[in-house]
Amino acid sequence: MAEYIRLTNESTIGEVAISIEVLKHIAQIEIEEDKDVRLANEGLFKTPISCNIEGNKLKLNINLDVRFKCNVKEVTNRLQQRIDESISHMTTYDLEEINLNVVGFIIE
Questions:
Q1: Rounded to an integer, what distance in angstroms lies between the CA atom of residue 61 and that of residue 77?
Q2: What is the CATH number of the domain that holds 24?
Q3: In sequence order, what are the beta bridge partners of 67?
Q4: In whole angstroms, what is the distance from residue 28 CA to residue 45 CA?
Q5: Which helix (H) or strand (E) holds 37?
Q6: Is 37 among the domain residues?
Q7: Model's pTM, two decimal places?
């Protein structure tokens, strides 16, 4: 069963809602475009991206690997900002929280 977030709109015709799977996919695209991070191995975690909905507020939790020797704080701050901006731009929805959990390193 899909879970949805109601988007604020000025329409009197009806409501607009977006599946949390869409929000997770937007975050995944931002992660894939960043050369310094990748989603953590799904074998270790049920899913590297999860969402919690309380009321109409969404918290996004993401398990990541960060490239070895990169500044973790800079990389994660940049990624949080990009995910927030993308979701806000594409859906007009503002996330309550974007939690990035660094669980490993990319060593190449």
A1: 14
A2: 3.30.70.1350
A3: 106
A4: 16
A5: strand 37-39
A6: yes
A7: 0.87
- Return the structure tokens found at 100: 């990035």
Q: How far apart are CA 6 and CA 67, in angstroms?
A: 36
Selection from 42, 53, 48 nearest residue 19 by Cα: 53
Residue with tokens 């909905």: 53
For residue 65, tell me if it sits in a domain: yes
Query: If you average pLDDT over residues 88-97, what whole number do you get?
Result: 90
Q: What is the token pair recorded at 62?
A: 């993401």
Beta bridge partners of 53: 58
Q: Is residue 56 domain-resident?
A: yes
What does the block give as tokens for 44? Answer: 């270790």
Number of domains in the chain: 1
Task: Round to whole Å and give the CA distance between 102 and 36.
Answer: 12
Cα within 13 Å of Cα(66), Cβ side: 16
Taking CA atoms, 82 is separated from 15, 57, 69, in Å, by 27, 19, 21
Residue 58 confidence (pLDDT) above 90? no
Give the domain range for residue 97. Answer: 20-106
